[in-house]
Amino acid sequence: MIPIQVSIYGLFDSHYWTSYRFTHVSGSNICTSRGVSTCRQCLAIHPSCAWCFKEEFGQGGSSVSRCDLKQNLLDGGCTKGGLEFPFSSLSVQENTPLSDKASGAADDVTQIRPQKLSLTLRPDDARRFTVTVKQVEDYPVDLYYLMDLSYSMKDDLARLRSLGNQLAAAMGRTTSNLRMGFGAFVDKPLSPYMYTYPEEAISNPCHGIQTRCLPQFGYKHVLSLTKQVERFTEEVAKQQVSRNRDSPEGGFDAVIQAVVCKDKIGWRTDASHLLVFTTDATTHVALDGRLAGLVQPNDGQCHIGRDNNYDKSSTLDYPSLALITEKMSENNINLIFAVTNNVMPLYQNYSQLIPGTTVGTLSDDSGNVIQLILDAYERIRSKVELELLGVPEELALSFNATCLNGELIQGLKSCSGLKIGDTVSFSVEARLRGCPKEKNRTFTIKPVGFKDALEVTVHFACGCDCEATAQPESPLCNQGNGTYECGVCQCHPGRLGDRCECADGDYRPSDQGNCSPKPEDPICGGRGNCVCGQCSCHTSGFGKVWGKYCECDDFNCLRFKGEICSGHGKCDCGFCKCGSDWMGENCNCTTRTDTCMSSMGLLCSGRGQCVCGACECTQPGAYGATCERCPTCPDACSIKKECVECQHFKRGRLFEEKSCARICRDEIQKSPIADTNIIHPNPHLSPSLFPALSCFLLSLSDCPKGPDILVVLMAVAGAILFLGLAGLLIWKLLVTVHDRREFAKFEEERAKAKWDTANNPLYKGATTTFTNVTYRGNS
């Protein structure tokens, strides 16, 4: 086994090079080892293989096969004009520069380039090209307001009547070319969805609650898109609610009609299309119509009658999510679910299944609907996501995104956190995994919700030009015993030989030397008979056997879990030819990357590589099925903390240096989710930590403001003073109590003491009395 390497170069934009590695097998290369006998089979082996259709090639003892590497064929005597060697190529057919601003009109606005490409691909070959997308400023907007008019939405309708002018004024800050329309829905006017008893309930569904309302209807188109805002307000003011019986509504019937009835609604080709869907209840989906006996699936066609009502409401089933997704993509509609909190989880699940959809929480009376629409439109405009339409099964596409700050993200076909006017690019690799029946196919790559698209025409280089000059029953094939095609005879059944000169029953022992590669090898590898110097291979119960020496078959290939080529490819002369989305020696390695996508839409959370459909984490500390867990990795919010402070709180280092606009290109969006359980050391910032590139600022209504520093200092000082005084008072109290106890004890002991009274013999009084003996009294 001696490896050699040959390179074929394909160049486009970023100097994309493709190299192929070949392996010698028993002295031959991959082109000569497969035992092919036609030009088409040769080209399907590998992009490096060429075929020589020159009639005299191989004559005169030349041992070079007609299917070989190009240089080998030239060295063997084939001329360049006698070669079939198509090569993959790419040409740009339309490449109009991107527009900077729409100026309220979009007739000549370009948001994606290039617009047309032509690809020529050989089997198992690839070419790479770049798609650039830009969100232009002041792009026209069509806004169609689709409202649930069941009885529970009565207060919402009353509120909307006063919001028409405010909604137009708010949207006018994003575009100078706005048109608004209005439609309403309830549910199918059939039992069990409507009240049928008593009879009065048919004309007045509110009969049971002692009031009047409109008869139940499925969907009615009220106002086509118009620039006259006062018309919107007038028509909304005329509307009245109705009432249905069951909890879910028939909103998806209304959605599909509002999407496909372009002429009735008035959708412009060159505008952003916003369909606002407001409800406070769940909605019926496909197959729910069988409860009313409706078995005919929704056909996705427009059925709005002259009275502007949906006239197939009682005939067709509800549409499926797949049908809604298909029609929204075809008509470039962005759906905004404005729903109440009780049904928010359901519509969030819907939004994950329907591309181009956003969800917002509607207040009980729809008072926040204007801000909700503005936020949803901002989220739509801040994201670019590519969608694919009409891609052949045999063509495998892979994407790499270059979003903000020139950062390359592998396996991603969307960018978020964009500002209007930002430009992003996607590197797309197209690889042909097989040969379709058609010679060419056209598919489309377009951003979700955009009218602009890239049209790619792929020419499948699976056949040979020399096939067009084939000669049926040619004299060159032993007087018409075969078709002369691309330099060789394709013999009729029962005929053999280079020129179909032999029949199955012919036998000449002298020709047996041509039926084995070496004299010591068994004739035809022991799997066939040598007839007219050519091997006639035996049939096998395991599969087909073929080749010059019967060396090829379709059952001796590598197996995986007991299946040939893992069940994902075909065995071709000992080699597995993998089907679409599979690769590897035994086709057990998938090329799909959807299983590696994290919940945030990043390939392996931006921390690893997708290998065979599984993430291999490359960033230290990352683990998990999609490398979503990484305790030691810096999170997006920690990295972007300074930008959050600068953009939302007008403070911090970047704000002081006036470098916020230059550094903080990916604006941090405020999330509509109010999560009161998030705690962050900074009382002003509550970032929700999502993997890799996403960070949202959550506004938490129950988070108290930070304490006043002066108050804290005074409180601390007061507490210290109070504790000191309290300590002194307690000490004084204890001392006083102790003294009083000691004095009382002394008094008590003194009272108990008893003493005898006597004069001190040594004591001499202070006065002494003497008697004058000579004194005799008065004379």
From TrEMBL:
**Can you supply a Gene Ontology BP term from the record?**
cell-matrix adhesion
Q: Which SUPFAM superfamilies match?
A: EGF/Laminin (SSF57196), Integrin beta tail domain (SSF69687), Integrin domains (SSF69179), Plexin repeat (SSF103575), vWA-like (SSF53300)
Q: How does it sit in the membrane?
A: Single-pass type I membrane protein
Q: Domain Integrin beta subunit cytoplasmic, which positions? A: 732-778
Query: For this UniProt entry, which segments traverse the membrane?
Result: 709-731
Q: List the disulfide bonds.
A: C31-C464, C39-C49, C42-C78, C52-C67, C206-C213, C261-C302, C403-C415, C462-C466, C477-C489, C486-C524, C491-C500, C530-C535, C532-C565, C537-C550, C552-C557, C571-C576, C573-C604, C578-C587, C589-C596, C610-C615, C612-C660, C617-C627, C630-C633, C637-C646, C643-C703
Q: Which domain of life is it from?
A: Eukaryota
Where is the protein found, in the record's own terms? Cell junction; Cell membrane; Cell projection, Lamellipodium membrane; Postsynaptic cell membrane
InterPro entries in the record: EGF_extracell, EGF_integrin_1, EGF_integrin_2, Integrin_beta_N, Integrin_bsu, Integrin_bsu_cyt_dom, Integrin_bsu_tail_dom_sf, Integrin_bsu_VWA
| Major subcellular location class | other
Q: Which UniProt keywords apply?
A: Calcium, Cell adhesion, Cell junction, Cell membrane, Cell projection, Disulfide bond, EGF-like domain, Glycoprotein, Integrin, Magnesium, Membrane, Metal-binding, Phosphoprotein, Postsynaptic cell membrane, Repeat, Signal, Synapse, Transmembrane, Transmembrane helix
Residues covered by the PSI domain: 30-79
GO terms assigned for molecular function: fibrinogen binding; fibronectin binding; integrin binding; metal ion binding
User: Any idea where the Integrin beta subunit VWA domain is?
Assistant: 38-464
> This chain belongs to which protein, by name?
Integrin beta
What's the name of its gene?
Answer: ITGB3
